[in-house]
Description:
The protein is α+β, with helices and mostly antiparallel strands. It is 43% helix and 26% strand. The protein has 2 domains: 1-27, no CATH class; 31-101. It has helices at 3-27, 68-79, 94-101, and strands at 32-36, 44-47, 50-55, 58-61, 82-87, 90-91. The protein has a 6-stranded antiparallel β-sheet with strand order 2-3-4-1-5-6, with helices on one face. Helix 2 (68-79) crosses helix 3 (94-101). The termini are far apart.
Amino acid sequence: MSSTFRAAAPFLATALLLTPVVGHAADAGRYYVATPAAAPAQQMLITSGTVWKWRDTAFTASKGPQRENIMCEMIVQHAGKLSAFSAGGKVFDDAALTKCNAHAK
């Protein structure tokens, strides 16, 4: 084994180990996706410590400690009724979305 390879091996191993973490970090803020029925007045909302940021056509947020239905209820209290909501890639069905929207102001 060449001395150059031996010197570079720890750095290459570290880079390979960190690659999945970097990829995950890019999607970390999109665990929840809440699409308001009407255009929002604000570009950022905070619900019980969870930061929701407006991206394109929806509010997105990182995974929070509350159950998915509670997260939906909290965002509708600030953003108003939603036309869609998903958590971890799972889209709320019509019944779940209707129940969530019942908590809107």
